[in-house]
């Protein structure tokens, strides 16, 4: 085969904007830009969105964005659970620590919805606009560069290679981002002392709607109501999963039962270590989120801890801000490095402070509990104050539910 034939075998595409990664940040950014009349290609390396144990908590800040877009009613018709209060069990004592009922939004609750349903819904809405293209099984492997500027991406599909040429490339491909690696962007590792083990445990029809967090001395578990099962997150010291495996599966099942006794009669559902998925927690952020022709958002720009379940919502806020700032210059197209720097300047402050709060939660709550330094003979002072004084619960509710700089949709809209 000669070189001309090799060249012809490459799928060649073009768009004003190419977004790498079909997660919440990528799909939302693609939807918003297409809604503004921008020609967008979103690349997703998998064939579907069906992957367990991804961020599933849709907070009031994101629900408000859905309201502003006019798609909230349809979204809430999808199966989901609603949490209007945030609480936990501390050594067997229940306490409420957050009350979302006072938030200045239309949905005063956290919606729990599998991420694949969330992404499928956004994709359906995006396809109402002619500029929205989602390409599944298109894995970006490298960047196209011309004259010192990023000019698109190249990658592979099951049927061969492809290239997408674009005025702007957005990296939204997560904490293991190929885009940021190939762009040579510097990452600042802020450290994370924990990992998380995710698993499914059956739910009984008469199970109470147990609070999210369960704490006993030396152990932490989060239970998320998934309708017919509990999605559980067991928090461990970083790098200790192998030691837990060496103790054996029966010992691990007993650990689950000790921290959440109501699950004791069904931990046998964990019959193999394959039933348990390890999430290696990272907290980091890029020093610079952009290069000429390239921007990173979401976990690609700043990997978040699962503390507070806010990662997906911070990524959505990035996408909204990106569309607000970039839709108009992309329509010309005339996106400059000043536009990209403006996006980072706007989103860096809430990112930095949110990560700082997560790191403090690791140091002051998670680590002391896992090290057995908190005995829970009674509620810790901070939890006791929140539980006893309802007005104080508005503070964590605001931080978790709305974040530090909630974004509002200001990008234009064409007729669908």
Low-confidence parts lasting 5 or more residues at pLDDT below 50? 1-7
Structural Rg: 22 Å
* CATH T-level topology of the largest domain: FAD/NAD(P)-binding domain
The shape, in one word, is globular
- First-last Cα distance: 45 Å
CATH top level class name of the largest domain: Alpha Beta
Q: Helical content, roughly? A: 25-40%
Given helix and strand content, the structural type is alpha+beta
Strand content: 25-35%
Q: Structurally, how many domains make up the residues?
A: 2
Q: What composes the largest sheet?
A: 8 strands, mixed
Keywords:
416 residues, FAD/NAD(P)-binding domain, Alpha-Beta Plaits, 2 domains, 8-stranded mixed β-sheet, 7-stranded mixed β-sheet, 12 helices
Task: Give a structural overview.
The N and C termini lie far apart (45 Å). This protein has helices at residues 3-8, 24-35, 60-68, 72-76, 115-126, 178-182, 241-247, 249-259, 311-331, 337-370, 381-388, 394-401; strands at residues 11-20, 40-44, 57-58, 81-83, 85-90, 93-99, 110-112, 132-136, 139-146, 149-157, 160-171, 187-189, 194-202, 213-216, 219-225, 229-237, 276-280, 284-286, 290-291, 294-296, 302-303. It has 2 domains: 3-190 and 282-401, FAD/NAD(P)-binding domain (3-Layer(bba) Sandwich); 194-280, Alpha-Beta Plaits, CATH 3.30.70. The chain is of the alpha+beta class and 416 residues long. It is globular and about 65 Å long. Helix 2 packs parallel to helix 5, helix 2 runs parallel beside helix 9 (311-331) and helix 7 packs across helix 8. The chain is built from 12 helices and 21 strands.
